[in-house]
TrEMBL record:
The keyword Lipid metabolism applies. SUPFAM superfamilies: Nucleotidylyl transferase. It comes from the Eukaryota. It holds the Pfam family CTP_transf_like. Keywords: Lipid biosynthesis, Lipid metabolism, Membrane, Nucleotidyltransferase, Phospholipid biosynthesis, Phospholipid metabolism, Transferase, Transmembrane, Transmembrane helix. GO terms for biological process: phosphatidylethanolamine biosynthetic process. Belongs to the cytidylyltransferase family. This is Ethanolamine-phosphate cytidylyltransferase. Residues 68-197, 264-358 form the Cytidyltransferase-like domain. It comes from Sesamum indicum.
């Protein structure tokens, strides 16, 4: 800021191109001479480079590339997160349009999550710089011009699936024509349709219907035996193939700095929702480094019944890692916080939200926070939102007829996609 308004940078702008050219020549000469004459020390270079870097940095600071991507982001999952991560990589600032409830209702039927909840989820992603609420479902020429003029967008980003307007024309034709359109690859393995399918297929099981009913406090309800189909994904075949590369792409890649205060929070983080974002934000504010323990699949099943978790451990880990308040995750954390964990990760504080998913099968188990409580490093924190995985699943069940119909149609087209898909080098 200061540099921009001072004369120094103005002079610099005119002056540096010469210097830049000069350095280029010097470099060429030096590299030639060093290779030619062998060991020649180059004392002048190091102090020239820092100046050069300042110039480059500020040149790019003047023109930050702003990219735009939109979506419904209903039942936010790591596929959405990955699309936005790729979009961000195409620019410096990512602006995300979140489609309004009304537009979703008239185009696809009722959304599971409200505008507020969807905004909270999208804003919580570490790659998102700005959000535009109530974006149109179909990108009109009018809205596109607003993006370019008002929001100073340089490029509109969209997935590689064709997006057609009702009249059959390409929705992004204008952006393409003016060279301000960029495309990203679809993230394989997950879709909102798939997640709704997992919840609905749980419901088919008469016993598990009770799982989503109002909590009765009866443990008997959940004492169902493990059926032959894999229920980690509600009997659905997951196309998700976890890779180490994806985890790395989502990670911050940094440990806690010296003297940082490490805060630990754990849970299933199933069907990552706005309530999770809020509690992670509150937890992060109590320290410098937020470590999140994500229960293993078998731990969640033991606590909540065989239909849970709805999302498997790797899927849940990616959703949590995508959150801007999270620094690190433990993939498959134990139910009990042990002394060894506290020492290993130098945990200063263990927190737990006041509103948390009921763990009906945990009755009779020992207090998972006994150790941190004894050490005086345990704290309950107020959950800002009264929302749980079960409450979201219940919304889907309440509207299951609409969702079943919608899903049947979409599942057919997704099946076709997987049958016909070919290898693509995706990022
Ligand atoms: C570049 O300019 C920005 C203002 O646009 C300023 O905040 C920043 O400190 C400058 N960076 C360097 C390295 O001079
Ligand atoms: C759960 O089921 C097992 C075997 O089906 C049975 O032996 C046990 O008593 C049941 N427990 C409860 C609490 O109903
Ligand atoms: C452990 O955490 C405390 C803060 O609670 C910090 O002062 C200390 O430096 C940390 N230890 C190491 C080795 O980083």
């Amino acid at each position: 800021m200061e540099f921009e308004s001072s004369n120094w940078i103005k002079d610099g702008v005119y002056f540096y191109p010469h210097l830049f050219g000069g350095i280029m020549i010097t470099c060429a000469l030096l590299s030639f001479s060093t290779s030619y004459f062998g060991k020649i020390s180059v004392p002048t270079m190091p102090y020239l480079f820092p100046d050069l870097r300042v110039f480059h940095k500020n040149k790019s600071a003047n023109k930050r590339v702003r990219v735009y991507m939109d979506g419904c982001f209903d039942l936010m999952h790591y596929g959405h997160a990955n699309a936005l991560r790729q979009a961000k990589a195409l620019g410096d600032e990512l602006v995300v349009g979140v489609v309004s409830d009304e537009e979703i209702i008239s185009n696809k039927g009722p959304p599971v999550l409200s505008m507020q909840e969807r905004l909270a989820l999208v804003s919580g992603l570490k790659w998102v710089d700005e959000v535009i609420p109530n974006a149109p479902y179909e990108i009109t020429e009018d809205f596109m011009n607003r993006l370019f003029k008002e929001h100073k967008i340089d490029y509109i980003i969209h997935g590689d699936d064709p997006c057609l307007l009702p009249d059959g024309t390409d929705a992004y034709a204008l952006a393409k024509k003016v060279g301000r359109y960029k495309q990203i690859k679809r993230t394989e393995g997950v879709s909102s349709t798939d997640i709704v399918g997992r919840i609905l297929s749980c419901m088919k099981d008469a016993k598990s219907e009770k799982l989503f009913s109002e909590p009765s406090g009866e443990v008997d309800n959940l004492n169902n035996t493990r059926s032959s189909k894999s229920l980690v994904n509600g009997g659905h075949i997951s196309h998700f193939l976890p890779t180490s590369r994806r985890i790395v792409q989502f990670s911050n890649g940094k440990g806690p700095g010296p003297n940082s205060r490490v805060v630990y929070i754990d849970g299933a983080f199933d069907l990552f929702h706005a309530g999770h974002v809020e509690i992670l934000k509150s937890a992060k504010q109590l320290g410098d480094f937020l470590l999140v323990g994500i229960y293993a699949d078998h731990t969640v099943s033991e606590l909540r019944g065989i239909n849970f978790p709805l999302m498997n451990l790797h899927e849940r880990s990616l959703s949590v890692l995508a959150c801007r308040y999270v620094d690190e995750v433990i993939i498959g954390a134990p139910w009990e916080v042990t002394k060894d964990m506290i020492t290993t990760f130098n945990i200063s504080l263990v927190v737990h939200g006041t509103i948390a998913e009921k763990n009906p099968l945990s009755i009779g188990k020992s207090d998972p926070y006994a150790v941190p409580k004894n050490m005086g490093i345990f704290q309950m924190i107020e959950s800002p939102k009264d929302i749980t995985t079960t409450s979201i699943a219940r919304r889907i069940i309440a509207n299951h007829e609409i969702y079943l119909k919608r899903n049947a149609k979409k599942e057919a087209s997704e099946k076709k996609y997987y049958a016909e898909k070919k290898y693509v080098l995706a990022d």
